[in-house]
Amino acid sequence: MTDTTPPPAEAPAPLAAGPPADAPAADLVAPKQGGQPTHFVFEHKIFKLPDVRFVREPDRLEAGLSIELGEHRAFLSTSILVKMFPDMGEADKKLIGTVVRSLAYVGEIHPGDSIPSEILDGSASWKVDPIHKDRARGRIVAALFAQDGGDLDEALIKGGLAPKLSEPGFKEKLDSEHKRLLASMGLPEDQGNEYKARFEKVAREFAYIEALRDRYGHVSGIVDKLAKTAKTYRNSGALSEEIYRVRILIKKPVEEYHSLFQNVDGQAAEIRSIARKTQDIVDFIRATRDKLHMKLLIWDSVVASWKDENVEGRSRRLESLIKNTYRFVAHYFPADEEWTLNR
């Protein structure tokens, strides 16, 4: 591994059991440090101006303060901001440092906003849908069923756990696999609830990976649309070449994201590691979650532009979108080596 960095009243699935009263302390999240701020509360008068907010400057991704000036907005990088106001207190300067780190997780920050929970305790500050939670549970159960090295059940991974629970004998099989795992680890059956709680803990974290997988699908979908666009504009001179360059530049980040998903999926497939090194697995999932979230965040506007675009025919709108996408990938993913592409 190269990267490190509530239970319901009636559990909907065996994995959702709550942690036992004597759960190991190593699996518990450390409490927030006493006195640690939880909101961006600044003292200096510059932060009292109307509609000020911290953002990342689009071209250089530099963090700074955006200030309204009539019909326009001014941007002051955080380094310039501190130099311009030497009367700024140390608490504000320290909080600006937290702003810089926080902008990796959110698009903008207004004075008074809460500090992202990624900064405070490592948990995600954004929500996932029930389907993502269920798919995560399905992936952990698939690993449990494949504990002896068998193939993972793709229906569990893609369809989630809930549809399987109504199948005759499934719950009994699930309980039997839990007991078999405990026996193989030399553990008594009365520790079953503790280990189910560990698996549920990992599944809760992995739900964010599943949500990001859907977002990644929208990015990789642009690759498919570009391939169709290449056929639509075949032999169209400069535009055809521009589409080719876009496809070259987009290839590297998409493959990089795919590799990150493969690595974290591999960790979720090791059920004994999940059982024995629960917090290590959680830490790895969180580190990968944050890395993927930061990388996919910049794609949101591009994904929105391509969402309903018809690539079956030529249009000025499509041609403009191709040019805008080329500028985007050329800026964020400049070529650092020669790439080729089968046209």
Give a brief description:
With 343 residues, the protein is mostly helical. It contains 13 helices and 3 strands; from the N terminus they run βββααααααααααααα.
Query: How much beta, percentage-wise?
Result: 5-15%
| Number of DSSP strand runs | 3
Distance between the first and last residues' Cα: 36 Å
Helix content: 40-55%
Overall spatial form: flat
Q: From the helix content, strand content and strand pairing, which structural class follows?
A: mainly alpha
Specify the biggest β-sheet. 3 strands, antiparallel
Low-confidence stretches: 1-34
Instruction: Note the total helix count.
Output: 13
Strand order of the largest sheet: 1-2-3
Global Rg: 24 Å
Average pLDDT value? 87
Order of helices and strands: EEEHHHHHHHHHHHHH
Your description of this structure?
With 343 residues, this protein is mostly helical. 55% of the residues lie in helices and 6% in strands. The chain is built from 13 helices and 3 strands, in the order E-E-E-H-H-H-H-H-H-H-H-H-H-H-H-H. The chain has helices at residues 78-84, 90-102, 117-120, 130-145, 154-159, 162-165, 170-184, 192-232, 238-268, 271-276, 278-297, 300-306, 316-332; strands at 53-57, 62-69, 72-77. A 3-stranded antiparallel sheet has the order 1-2-3. Helix 9 (238-268) packs antiparallel against helix 11. The chain is flat, with a radius of gyration of 24 Å. Mean pLDDT is 87; it is low at 1-34.
